[in-house]
Amino acid sequence: MKEEKLTNSHENYDESQEYEFEQDEEEVKKIHLVLEDDSEVDAKVLDIFKVNDEEYIALLPDKDQRVFLYKYEENEEGIRLNNIENQEEFELVSNEFMKLFEGSED
């Protein structure tokens, strides 16, 4: 099994941005992020999942081995990603993602 590193990236994306999913010809959902330092990252959406009634998204940036985890909200205005600020919450979310990810490798 390929091991992925999880991160609550300190290269935070710009929370003022709204995001939209794109699907390429292989039906893989991708998202384009603009980080706070104005750098841009395209990432594959690995999963959107719930933990304690909150939704989270797992992203795998192109040309990177780290998985980024964010809070995820979707409404009529679009998609909003929020940084996970609390270390305890991040550990809970990353553990849940690892359980889901390990189960999908079977």
Automatic annotation (TrEMBL):
This protein's name: DUF1292 domain-containing protein
Recorded superkingdom: Bacteria
Stored Pfam families: DUF1292
Biased composition (Basic and acidic residues): 1-13
Organism of origin: Caldisalinibacter kiritimatiensis
Span list, region Disordered: 1-22
